[in-house]
Amino acid sequence: MALLEMIHFDLVITDLVMDRIDGIGGLKAAKEKNRETMVLILTGYGDMGSAIGALRLDADDYMLKPCEPDEMRIRVSRCFDRLEAARKLKL
Length: 91
What we know:
Elements: H1 2-6, E1 11-15, H2 23-33, E2 38-43, H3 48-56, E3 61-64, H4 69-90
Keywords: DNA-binding, Phosphoprotein, Transcription, Transcription regulation, Two-component regulatory system
GO biological process, one term: regulation of DNA-templated transcription
GO molecular function: phosphorelay response regulator activity; transcription cis-regulatory region binding
């Protein structure tokens, strides 16, 4: 979390369940720092409630683990495409 305060990130990839902070806390912190930061949540818990909750809190994508490297690349690429499109609209 300290890194989110010091450095601007275009994309944050976080796990939903971690020891010190959960992914929802990371999502909230990233979006509070910069609404444009894209957040991709990973989880090994395929619970629809957590997916809906993350998306309602403005997660940009949500993936179940284990995930295939190609699928991860596609999702990351989509996040950057949406970020670029949003930045162009601001101009």
